[in-house]
Every structure is written in structure tokens, then in C-alpha cells.
UniProtKB/TrEMBL annotation:
This is Flavodoxin. The lineage of its organism: Bacteria, Bacillati, Bacillota, Bacilli, Bacillales. Gene3D superfamilies: 3.40.50.360. Residues 4-140 form the Flavodoxin domain. GO terms for molecular function: FMN binding; menaquinone-dependent protoporphyrinogen oxidase activity.
């Protein structure tokens, strides 16, 4: 099984999650940060695609939105996984997930995950610090990256994945 994890990571948290996930997905897995690397491979080369990003100012990164829009039909034919890193929890996190991933894509996913998030103030600009302070109530680094949620996502993804005709 060949899998591709495509993500954007503004401050490194989504990259951490993607690399923890990469080690837990069965088969050959490549992880690409669209913020640093342009995808040069044809998605048809992969049995599975996992797409992830994080919430900034209420939305997912523009490159993830563009990737989904440009590849929506191909993604729907793949073993598809979707994950989101965000500091919200419970119902609010679910609302953010539903807001950033289009309904057709969400419905096609065999695994969905919300992996928590981090506020790393030293990596934020002024505007981001103001927002993070209003959300967290503080100005010190905060991590609630949920490795158990990543493990559960990987288990679900591995269990539900199947080889697909190319």
C-alpha cells in the first residue's frame, strides 16, 4: 500500500502530528508539507491520501483548501483520511473540522481525526499572539497534541484501507 500524507504546518505542530502518524500507517508512506515542498507526484500513484492542516484565524491553510479543491474527484476515489490540529475541543473542534473540510470530502473519508494543537508563542507574529492569548488566557507555550487521537486515527485508517485499482 502506498500512502501520501499532505499537510501544511505553520508553526510545526501539524508537522509533528503528520510524522507521528506517518510511522503508524501501514505500507510505504510519504509525508509532504505543502508549505515547503510542491507536490510533484500524481495522486493516482497512491492507494491512500491523508490530508491535514491546522486552524489559524478560524480557517485551515489556503494551500490545503486549494489542494482539496483541485484534487477533489481523485481524493474521493482514494482511501482518504482527514485530520485537523486545533486548540478547540469537543463540539467546537468538530464544528471547525466540518467548516474546513467540504461535505463531499468528509463523507468520503475512511478516517477523521482531531489531534489537538499547540500554542508556541515564540513562533507567532504579533497578531497570532493576540489571538492565542484570547483563546488560552495566557502567554506561555501550551501543548495539547493528542498522540492517542493520532494512534486511534492510524488504527481506523489501517483497518479500513484497501488496495484500490489504479
Amino acid at each position: 500500500m502506498k500512502s501520501l500524507i499532505v499537510y501544511c504546518s505553520t508553526h510545526g505542530t501539524t508537522a509533528k502530528a503528520a510524522h507521528v502518524l506517518r510511522k503508524q500507517i501501514e505500507g510505504d508512506v510519504i509525508a509532504i508539507n505543502l508549505d515547503k515542498t510542491k507536490l510533484h507526484s500524481d495522486l493516482e500513484l497512491f492507494d491512500s491520501v491523508i490530508v491535514g492542516g491546522s486552524i489559524h484565524a478560524g480557517s485551515i491553510q489556503a494551500k490545503i483548501k486549494k489542494f482539496i479543491k483541485e484534487n477533489e474527484e481523485v481524493l474521493k476515489r482514494k482511501n482518504l483520511g482527514l485530520f485537523l490540529c486545533c486548540m478547540r475541543e469537543g463540539k467546537e473542534a468538530l464544528q471547525q473540522f466540518e467548516h474546513v473540510f467540504p461535505p463531499g470530502i468528509r463523507e468520503s473519508a475512511i478516517a477523521r481525526g482531531m489531534f489537538g494543537g499547540e500554542f508556541i508563542f515564540s513562533k507567532m507574529n504579533f497578531f497570532e499572539k493576540v489571538i492565542a492569548k484570547s483563546v488560552s488566557g495566557g502567554t506561555t507555550d501550551l501543548s495539547n497534541l493528542d498522540e492517542e487521537a493520532i494512534r486511534e486515527f492510524a488504527d481506523t485508517f489501517n483497518k479500513n484501507s484497501k488496495y484500490l485499482p489504479v
